[in-house]
Design goal:
This protein has 132 residues and is an all-alpha fold. The chain has 4 helices and no strands. The protein has helices at residues 3-22, 28-42, 58-74, 77-131. Helix 1 (3-22) packs across helix 4. The chain is elongated, with a radius of gyration of 25 Å.
Length: 132
Amino acid sequence: MGLRQQAQQLHKEAHVFYLAFKHPRVHWYARLVAICAASYLLSPIQLIPNFIPGIGFLDDLLVLFLGAKLLRKITPPDVWTECRELAEKAKLRRSEEIGWAAAVGVPVAVVALWLLVGLAGSALIAAYIHHH
C-alpha cells in the first residue's frame, strides 16, 4: 500500500473513531479513553518532545495505537460496523463532491486564465503602440 493509500486509510479510521465517539451507545469510559488519547496528542507536555527528530513522534504513535486498540475493544462490535459504514458513505460523498467541483472548477479556471492572459497581452500591445 502506497503512502497516499495509507494516509487515506488513516483518515477513514479517524473518521470511524470520531463517529464512534459520538455514537449514543458508546459508554462514557470509551469516550474518556478517546479524550485522553486526543488530549495527549494535542498537549504541549509529552514524554518525548515532538521537536526531537525521528523519535519525537514515537510516543504519539504509541498513545494513538494503544488508545485505538482499547477503544475498539470496549466498544460494541455492531457500533464499529455501523460507524465504518457511515465513514465509507461519507468518503464516497466527498469523492463525488470533489469530482463535481473539479468538473466545474477546472474549466472555469482555464477560462479565467485565458481571459487574464488575453487582457495582459492586450494591455502590453496597447502600451507598446501608444509608446511608439
